[in-house]
Amino acid sequence: MSGGAVRQPGASRGTALRSAFVLAHDERLGGFALLRDAVVLVRGDRVEAVAPGVDGDAIAALADETIDLGESLLMPGLIDLEGLVDIDHLQLDSFWSDAHEARLEWSESYASDPREVLTDAERSTLRRYGLAQLILHGITSAMPISTEIHGAWAETHDDLLDTARTASELGIRVFLGPSYRSGVHVVRADGSRGIHWDEAKGEAAFAGAVRFLDSVAELADPLVTGVLVPCRIETVSDAILAETGRVSAERGVLVRAHATQGLDSELGILERERGTTPLDLLDRSGLLTERLVLAHGVYIDVHPDVHGEDRGDLARLAAAGVSIAHCPVTNARYAMLLERLSQYLEAGVNVGLGTDSFPPDLVRAIDTGVQLAKAQHGDLGAGLLAEYVEAATLGGARALHRPDLGRIEAGAAADLVAFSLADLRMGAIDDPIRTLTLSGTGRDAHFSMVAGRVVMRDGAIPGLDAEALRAEGQRIFEKLRAAYPERDALAGPGGSTEAELFPPVFPLG
Questions:
Q1: In this model, does residue 8 exceed pLDDT 50?
Q2: Three-state SS at 32
Q3: Structural domain boundaries of the chain?
């Protein structure tokens, strides 16, 4: 499995990473292979060689520095196609009934005159907080997402330019674009739901998203890739979706679109108001292509709440080359389960993983996905762990059109993460991947590297004041929570309070 490039005289000899276990990639073995007591040699931004045992000792001798990761699992950096850079999503909105959750959305009157809840500086801190969380949970590549509920409308060009600069500073690889929409889901005073449209704001937001692509090109930063990220497709006009398809084709940029994630809130609205289905709308907009990352991809024909049978949607997705961003934890918390990962893979649909939740923990996502799959299949042998690990690495890499990511082999990008297994609470180690999934979490990540740069060591991000960020994050969270009552369409004459909207699990004594 060892191999590497010819070294030029006087060049840096690189860094050797030694670990008790390495999840390497070898096409001769058909994919991943687990190596014991192995060494990965990194030079520049690439992996130069990988080898176990005495061969590992030999390549370590070639390095300028050896980092001994001890009793760890060193694996490809995790890829998060729905990387949350937020602080409250699902903390505040996933524990309530549908009726109560309606009170957490925008009222129609608020949508007519929304405001920014946070200052520019607070929004910047929020993004730093979110990106740091991704790194601390073992994610090396992310396509970030954040809620628009606290914004005046949608993310802006300047918001995402700040995100790009913060990502570069911290060292995480990002695929970025401001989310844009033409409308927003609202709840009316009578409790009915609908979409409040503002075409002018939608056009301005889309223009900012296209401008951001130019700004990323000017940055010329290999860690930052510009993408287009329309919001939920039922809130984006036909015209802007078509323009998204045109720009994507013209510039060859990826698109992540939120679709097939809601029944009445999406499928019902599209059928009633636009006479179409999500996949048909994406297709006629020029978006159903290999450049599309379909966020969630839950409610297609095979789902029991749609048709409960295969009427061609999976084959259509596979033929188009669409990738799915599967978010098991979010699916479980919202009770919107994918029907079923194995079915998508068997049909030839590429699937990557996303967190889309706090904490942004793909280890928990893998475990949740495996357990849900077993329940769905009614078979303990189903829901193979390997499928979910591959989705979090190779599947994500395919979705991003980056075959150099998601693997540890000579020539691949040096994007790596190590999870510590050296804890009594981890239990006995059989297979380290099973042990990590069953007993660990993303918090067990203690080392990571992106493009050959160490971005986390000993569980900390170099140069980041974690305690100060934690304190500021708590303050911002409380400010966000305090803003919910002003948007409550169903409040009585005196309005609602935080205590009414967010009651504790048990009464306070």
A1: no
A2: strand
A3: 15-68, 76-457
* Nearest CA-CA partner of 49 in 426, 409, 508: 409
Provide Rg for the chain, Cα atoms.
23
Q: What is the pLDDT of residue 492?
A: 73
In 12-164, the DSSP E strands lie at 15-26, 31-43, 46-52, 65-68, 72-76, 78-84, 106-107, 139-145
- Residue 98's pLDDT is 65
Decide: helix, strand or coil at residue 45.
Answer: coil
Q: What is the pTM of this model?
A: 0.95
Using CA atoms, how far residue 120 sits from 151, 156, 172, 484, in Å, is 11, 11, 22, 19
Return the CATH fold of 76-457: TIM Barrel (3.20.20)
Q: For residue 251, what are its two tokens?
A: 């510039």
Residue 32 neighbours by CB distance under 10 Å: 20
| Average pLDDT score over residue span 298-310 | 96
pLDDT tens, residue by residue, 395-446: 999 999 999 999 999 999 999 999 999 999 999 999 999 999 999 999 999 9
Q: What six digits make up the tokens of 487?
A: 């948007």
Tell me the pLDDT band of 99, cut-offs 50, 70 and 90.
low
Name 322's Cβ contacts closer than 8 Å, sequence gap at least 6: 288, 289, 290, 292, 293, 294, 349, 350
d(CA 509, CA 506): 9
How far apart are the C-alpha atoms of 90 and 96, rounded to whole Å? 10
Secondary structure (3-state) at 182:
coil
* Concatenated DSSP letters of 437-452: HHH--GGGEEEEEETT
Q: Are 347 and 314 spatial neighbours (Cβ–Cβ below 8 Å)? A: yes
CA separation for the pair 441, 364 (Å, rounded): 6
> Is it the case that residue 382 has pLDDT exceeding 70?
no
Q: Are strands 445-450 and 453-457 parallel, antiparallel or unpaired?
A: antiparallel
Classify 364 as helix, strand or coil. Answer: helix
Instruction: Give percent of the chain with pLDDT exceeding 70.
Output: 96
Phi/psi of residue 365, nearest 5 degrees = -65, -45
Q: Are 361 and 369 in contact (CB under 8 A)?
A: no
C-beta neighbour count of 347 within 10 angstroms: 16
| Buried b / exposed e along 65-84 (16+ C-beta atoms within 10 A) | eebebeebbbbbbbbbbbbb
Note the pLDDT of residue 248: 98
Helix (H, G, I), strand (E, B) or coil at 436: helix
User: Can you give the pLDDT at residue 6?
Assistant: 39
DSSP designation for 201: H
